[in-house]
Amino acid sequence: ERLVGNEFTYMTPSLPVHIEDPLERVKLTATSTAIAKENHNLLGPTLLPSWLTFLPPATTPRIFRMQARRVESAMVMNLTVSNVP
Predict the structure, then answer these.
(1) Domain around 17
(2) Distance separating alpha carbons of residues 8 and 65, to the nearest angstrom
(3) What is the pLDDT along the chain (85 residues), one digit of tens a residue?
(4) Burial class (CB in 10 A: 0-12, 13-18, 19+), 48
(5) pTM for the whole thing?
(6) d(CA 60, CA 64)
(7) CA dist 52 to 7, 19, 48, 62, 74, Å?
(8) How many domains in the chain?
(9) Residues 6+ apart with CB under 8 A from 21
(10) CA neighbours within 13 Å on the CB side: how many for 28?
(11) Where are the beta strands (DSSP E) in 1-85?
């Protein structure tokens, strides 16, 4: 059990930026986020951090560069959410 430091995890909701109606966009975002959260909970919130501990530090930059070149990565955006008041 970790006592200090940051914990990172991820979810992959689809954001309906193509929907013009703001209310419909909010509804679809809520649905998409609920599905992503359910998937995240099924996999477990510690899966990604656990995997990251096994990456050798020397190879990490290369792995992230390779991932950034993938076509799907062009559509990925980061959104930071914190529960710190």
Answers:
(1) 1-85
(2) 19
(3) 656 666 666 777 888 888 999 999 999 989 998 998 898 888 877 777 777 778 788 888 888 788 777 766 566 667 676 666 6
(4) middle
(5) 0.55
(6) 6
(7) 11, 35, 6, 14, 22
(8) 1
(9) none
(10) 12
(11) none
